[in-house]
Amino acid sequence: MRKNGNDDNTKKEDATDHLDPVEHVEMEADLHSDSENTSQDDGEDYQRGTWSRKTDFILSVVGYSVGVSNIWRFPYLCMKNGGGAFLIPFFFFLIFCGIPLFFLELCIGQFSGVSSIFVWRICPLFQGLGYLMVIVSFLMSWYYITVLVWVLYFLYNSFFSPLPWSVCTNDWNTIYCIKTRQKINGNLSDYNGTVAALTTNGTISGTWNQTADLNSWNASWSGLAVNQTTTESMINHSQLRTAAKEFWQYEVLRLSGGLDEPGSIQLHLFICLLLAWILVFFCLMKGVKSVGKVVYITAVLPYILLTTFLIRGLMLPGSLDGIKYYLIPDWAKLLDYQVWLEAGIQVFYSLGPAWGGLITMSSYNKFHNNCLRDALVGSLADGLTSFYAGFVIFAVLGYMAEEAGLTIKEVADSGPGLALVAYPEAITKLPYPQVWAVMFFLMLLTLGIDSQFGTFETVSSGLVDAFPKQLGKRKVLLTAMLCTAMFIIGLPFTTNGGMYLFQLVDWYAASLCVLITCFLECIIVGWIYGAERFSRDVELMLGRPVWLIFRICWCIITPLVMLVAFIITLTQYQPPTYEDYTYPGFARALGVILSFIPLIPLPVTMVYLLVKTEGSLWERLRLLTAPSPDWGPHINKYKKSYHSEKNCLDTQPFLIQAQHNILGSWVKPR
């Protein structure tokens, strides 16, 4: 219920004068219009805009966090690393690293009301972090769109009957094509078919490493009819590939021999890349105003479709065996540090902290928005969606394993192969496969495009904030120019060697940067600016104290985990691979360079600011680690009182400062 306006204003003035939070978040929600109008007087909100509704932001955050990796990476990692036991390290990292970082970035963006480039005015010495985030987001938008390209082509082919990946009678198929995964028993004989639509009267089961005589087989290859009878033609079973695998390699990718054989631009992928960027443009052309409308479809539809697939999957024979395989824990795996490392990496790369997307999206929030609720909803939605998707995937893998007489491990692929080979193959076994295929790839499309929103908006908002007068009212033009530029530089991914380039960029682009950025975020906010001071800022927005666990994580747990993960990543470096292909030395060198490119602005800005600033080295460091004059709450009403506040810890001994910084009101400074 809305309270009396005069009483509200009086209470709010008192809160402002003393930098005390209001009594309740809901009361502040009623006062948003007064606070935000103050900011609009400067033209800031007019240029940047705000979310139309709270739900717009929550759905955007969920869509940003939940992506295709929840479908094709988490279930495989769970299977590989101990089944249900993997959930322990996964949720450990989610609770003690993922959620605190998620909350930190939402708070810092909402408090300052600026994008990732300028938010680091909180500690000018590290202002290069903002440019680092923009570069990482640019790289992610540049190569991640390739996933949408593949999905669009699969979606297009889903309308054909039969599904192109369900038969071996296409032009791209080879004599090694089989319709589905099967175990081979004995000799293969009496094969009759076109290209490789091979059938046998024998039972296909057991293991088989021998060769087989092919008698009286007919084949049509590249339009040339060949009739041949032979008793010497030999095929090793390891050469056999499913129709879905051949569709992926020989039709979608049209894969070359390696990165040094890029080949030519493939027309079908070129068209899909163009369509993908057109789709992104229309979704983002008006910034948060247009995104806020689109996410009601793109963030909600995947859950409807996932539930539909789960219900259908549970009706299939063998589905429960798949789910048991998914959930039954192998506790011994918890003693393997690699399992913990992969769980942590999955959390960091799935939630998307350190890319700038969370900061950028939260900067469009109203000042008193309940970002704690948003952080919990967004991060838990990501973790629980990964867990939920595992049921969907393994129910179908269990069915495939029973049908083929294989183990679940033998039918499960990792990475894109799980979503673009194994699952499409399973769809061919269902009634009305075209309907299920359209639904599945529509789900992947919405998951992929949601993740694109946050990374792309980080780049565009950074440019708008850097040049507000020139670009503030030209959002549509800027979006069109960025989409065009990324389309052009993304063309190498549409070549025959595009998959090798995609794997290389995916391997290196944000690997070290994410860990370094997350570590520095914790050091800056937790120690340089101070967790106690930052907690008071958050309390001003939320009207409630920050949970103690967050302060402990920001200052101790999360940075330590980041540091350990960084060291292990360096010491356990593995060169990139794609199936059996080993990348040459020049490719690995290129990848290492790519991983360090986003880091360049960090030391460059440090050196520049240290040289530019006057005084002794200690005076420069002290000045550059203090918030700049233009840092503070983006509500004008709070700015004056914020800048008049003094840090009571400045003259205290370090241990006293550290104790009070972490524990806050639990320990009073002397």
Automatic annotation (TrEMBL):
One GO BP: amino acid import across plasma membrane
GO MF: amino acid:sodium symporter activity; metal ion binding
Membrane disposition: Multi-pass membrane protein
Location in or out of the cell: Membrane
SUPFAM superfamilies: SNF-like
Record-listed Na(+) binding positions: 63, 66, 70, 350, 447, 450-451
Highest taxon of source: Eukaryota
Record keywords, A-Z: Disulfide bond, Glycoprotein, Membrane, Metal-binding, Sodium, Symport, Transmembrane, Transmembrane helix, Transport
Record InterPro entries: Na/ntran_symport (IPR000175), SNS_sf (IPR037272)
Sequence segments annotated as region (Disordered): 1-23, 29-48
Disulfide bond positions: 168-177
Main location: membrane
Membrane-spanning ranges: 57-74, 86-108, 129-156, 265-285, 294-317, 337-359, 380-401, 435-456, 476-495, 507-528, 548-569, 589-611
A single cellular component GO annotation: plasma membrane
Family recorded in the similarity comment: Belongs to the sodium:neurotransmitter symporter (SNF) (TC 2.A.22) family.
This protein's name: Transporter
Organism placement in taxonomy: Eukaryota, Metazoa, Spiralia, Lophotrochozoa, Mollusca
